[in-house]
Amino acid sequence: MEITVYGPVRSATGAKTVSLEFDGGTVADAVAAFVAAYPRAEPHLYDGDELRSSVRVTVDGERAPMEDRVPADASLTLMPAVQGGSR
Questions:
Q1: What is the CATH number of the domain that holds 22?
Q2: Range of the domain at 34
Q3: Is position 25 within any domain?
Q4: Where would one find coiled-coil regions in this protein (predicted)?
Q5: What's the pTM?
Q6: Other C-beta atoms within 10 Å of 47: how many?
Q7: pLDDT digits (tens, 9 = 90+) for 65-77
């Protein structure tokens, strides 16, 4: 699976797009596998045990709820909210 990340999550991966071994499952499973591989991303994506409501996840370019199925060869995009600068 290829995962493209934006915002502060990119500092956890060191690259905009990373490859991850994933056997398929739900969106929640894919995000959990990503966080297991890149633990520094967790505070940017989760608030406790829940995915932050501001995080947007797409699968093959389409927004996907956490319970949707994801094939092993899908492309996932993770977009955490990006906060603006000061005035």
A1: 3.10.20.30
A2: 2-79
A3: yes
A4: none
A5: 0.88
A6: 11
A7: 999 999 999 999 9
Q: Is residue 81 scored above 90 in pLDDT?
A: no
Instruction: Judge contact between 78 and 9, C-beta under 8 A.
Output: yes
Q: φ and ψ at 4, to 5 degrees?
A: -105, 135
Domains of the chain: total = 1
Given the structure tokens 């501001």, which residue do they identify?
54
Take residue 69 and report the two structure tokens written for it: 């199925």
Dihedral of alpha carbons 21, 26, 30, 35, sign? negative
What is residue 77's three-state secondary structure? strand
What whole-number distance in Å separates Cα of residue 76 and Cα of residue 62? Answer: 9
pLDDT of amino acid 85 = 46
Residue 33's φ and ψ, nearest 5 degrees, are -65, -40
Residue 44 structure tokens: 């940017």
**Alpha helices, H only, the chain:** 9-13, 27-37, 42-45
